[in-house]
Amino acid sequence: MTSVVWFRRDLRVEDNPALAAGVRSGKVIAVYVWAPEEEGHYYPGRVSRWWLKQSLSLLDSSLQNLGTSLITKRSTDSVLSLLDVVKSTGATHLFFNHLYDPFSLVRDHRAKEILTENGIVVRSFNADLLYEPWEVLDDEGQPFVTFSSFWDRCLRMPYDPQPPQLPPKRIISGDLSRCPSDTIIFENDSERGSNALLARAWSPGWSNANKALTTFINGPLLDYSTNRRKADSATTSFLSPHLHFGEVSVRKVFHQVRTKQILWANEGNTAGEESVNLFLKSIGLREYSRYMSFNHPYSHERPLLGHLKFFPWIVDENYFKAWRQGRTGYPLVDAGMRELWATGWLHDRIRVVVSSFFVKVLQLPWRWGMKYFWDTLLDADLESDALGWQYISGTLPDSREFDRIDNPQIEGYSFDPNGEYVRRWLPELARLPTEWIHHPWDAPEYVLQAAGIELGSNYPLPIVTINAAKSRLQEALTHMWQHEANTRAVLENGTEEGLGDSLEDTLIAFPQDMQMELDQETVRNRTTTPIRHYEDQMVPSLTSSLLRVEEDEDESSSDDRNLAHDNSRAEVPTDAMNRELLREPIQRELGQDFGAQSILPQFNMQIALRNSEDSPAESSSATTSRRERDGGVVPVWSPANSSNSESFVGEDNSYLQRHPQLNWRQLSQTG
DNA sequence: GCGGCTTTACG
DNA sequence: GTAAAGCCG
C-alpha cells in the first residue's frame, strides 16, 4: 500500500507523525505543494522564502538518504494538486500534520473532504503543539482567554505531551515515475543578492535546527533569565524560524529543556530553573498563538476585543515609511527597524518596542505593522504575528493597557544601557556619548557637533514627541468614546444612519506599495489553473469532538458526538474553530438578511481575489445555511457572515460578556 | 530583621 | 495601575 505524506510546516524526518504513519503502512510518496496564492495577502516575504527553499532542499536530501525523495508541486490549488499526486502514484492514503492558521484550517478541511470523496483514506496528526487546542479547556469546558491561565493548565495537564519519536531508519519509496516534480521559483533575480548574505548568519534545515537546539541548551539557556532583556540578542535561542517551519518539533524542545531543568533543580541551581521557566513561557506563547488562531480564526485581521472599534487610527503613509526606514528620531526604535530590514531578525524585546511605538506613538493601524513584520521577518508566522500585535494594541483581555505609552528613551537605557545596539545599527550616531545616545535631541550643540550629528539632517528629530503623543492619544480616546456613545444613541433610536462613518481598522486597506508587491507576485505566478471561486474553499466541517449540546440543540444527535469523540485526539475538530461563530453570531443571525448591511468582505483571501481579478463580487450574499452530509450536520459559512465585527467582538458579543471582570472596560468607563 | 521607599515587571 | 522585589537606613 502506498501513502502520500504531505509536508507543510513540518519539514523534518524526526518526530514527524505523518511521515511515521506513512512509513508504518508501506510505501511513501513525500510531497510539498507550493501554493502561496491561497494565503491571500500573506504571500511569504523574501527572507521567509529563502529559508523555505533551503529547508526543502535539505529535507529532500534526508529523504533521499532514507530511500525516497521529495516531490515538489507548484500549484494554485493545493487540494487538487494532492489529488493529482495521489492518482498518478496509485496511493490510497494521505497523511499530514495539523496547522492552525485560518487558511490552513479551511484548506485542510477541504483536502479531507475532497480526497475522502475520492476514496482516499485521510489521517492527520498533531506535530506542531504540545497539546491540541481543543484539549486545553477550563473547568467549564471553555477555551481559556488569558495566556497565563492557558499556560498554567498546559503545564498541569493530566498527561504529558507525547515524547518525540526517532526518525525512520529507512523509507520504501512509492512509484515516482509518473509524478514529476515542478521547479519552484522561490526568489527572483533582484532578491538573490540580498539573500546571499543570509547564509552567513543562518542555517536552515532540520539537522541544523537540532544543532541550534543543542547549542542553546548547553549554552545561553542557563543565563536566559538574566540576559533576556538585552537588545543584543546573542542570548536568545534563535529557534523561531526553525520552529516556524517545523524543522524541530516543539515537543522535542520541551522534552530536552525540561530534562535540563530537572537536572538543574537537583543541583539546586535556581537560576537555571528560572531560566527554563522563562524560556518555556515563550514556547507557551507560541502554543497560545495557535490556540487563539484556532479558537478565533480572524485574529490576524480583526481585534479580539471591540472596544477600539471607533479609534481614529492615523492613516499616514509617511509615518509608516519613516517607521519602516528607521527614521523616527528615536534611536532604539530606528536601530531595531534597521536591523529588521538588514537581517530579517529582531529580538523579541525590540519587536515590542517598535510595535508599541507604531501603535501608541504613531497611532498607525496595527495591521500595517503586522503585515510589515510578515513581509520582513525570517521567522514570520501568522499566528504569532497576530498575537503579538493584538497584545501590543490592547485588544486581548490580558494586553497592555491601551492608554499607556512606552518611552523609547527609557527603554533604551534599560535594554541597551551602553548604546552598543544603537551604534551598531545607526552608524550616524556611533560617536555620540552614551549619556545622549537614546535622546540625541537633548544633547548640547557642541556634543552633537563633536559627534558629527546634525539633527534634522543626517539624523531626524523625533517624528512626534512623547508628550505630544500622550496628549494626542488622550484626544483620540475621547473622540472614540464620543463616537461610540453617538453610535449607541443612534442605534437606540432605531435608525441606522451614522453607522457608516466609523473607520474600523479592519477596513483600512494596506498601503499601495505593500499591495503592489503582492499583486505583481500574483500575476507573475499565475499558472494555467484559474483561481477557484473562493466560496468553495470556505466550508469548514463538523467532524468532531467539541460540539456541545447547547450549540446545536436538536440538530446534533448524541450519536454524532460520541462518534466524534473516538477520534478527537487525532483529528482537528473544525467545528471548534467555528465555535465563536457558531455559538453567538451565526445562531443569532440565522435567517437574517445581511444583504447590503454586511459591508465589505474582510477575509484577506477575498480581498486579494478582488484586487487581483475581476471575480464576480464573491456572491457574498452571506448565506448561512446548514446542510446534511455524512449523516452529520455541517454548518456552512461564508466569510461575509462574520465580516461585521459587531457580530464577533461588538459590545453585545460573547467574548466580552463572558469576561466582564477584564480591565478593558475601564477604558470605556473613564471616558 | 523590619518598615518604608524605589524599582521592576506585567503576555 | 498594581504588586512584588530590591534596597537602604
Automatic annotation (TrEMBL):
Write out the biased-composition intervals (Basic and acidic residues): 558-569
Which cofactor is essential here? Answer: FAD; (6R)-5,10-methylene-5,6,7,8-tetrahydrofolate
How, per the record, is the cofactor bound?
Binds 1 FAD per subunit.
Binding of FAD, residues = 224, 236-240, 279, 379-381
InterPro entries xrefs:
Crypto/Photolyase_FAD-like_sf, Crypto/Photolyase_N_sf, Cryptochr/Photolyase_FAD-bd, Cryptochrome/DNA_photolyase_1, Cryptochrome_C, Cryptochrome_pln, DNA_photolyase_1_CS_C, DNA_photolyase_N
Q: What is its EC number?
A: 4.1.99.3
Can you supply a Gene Ontology BP term from the record?
response to stress
Where do the record's region annotations for Disordered lie? 548-578, 611-671
Q: Keywords for this entry?
A: Chromophore, FAD, Flavoprotein, Lyase
GO MF annotations in UniProt: blue light photoreceptor activity; deoxyribodipyrimidine photo-lyase activity; DNA binding; FAD binding
User: Per the record, where is site Electron transfer via tryptophanyl radical?
Assistant: 313, 366, 389
Write out the similarity annotation.
Belongs to the DNA photolyase class-1 family.
One matching Pfam family: DNA_photolyase
Q: What is this protein called?
A: Deoxyribodipyrimidine photo-lyase
Kindly give the PROSITE patterns that the UniProt entry links to this protein: DNA_PHOTOLYASES_1_1 (PS00394), DNA_PHOTOLYASES_1_2 (PS00691), PHR_CRY_ALPHA_BETA (PS51645)
Which segments constitute the Photolyase/cryptochrome alpha/beta domain?
1-130
Which cellular component, as a GO term, is one annotated location?
Answer: cytoplasm
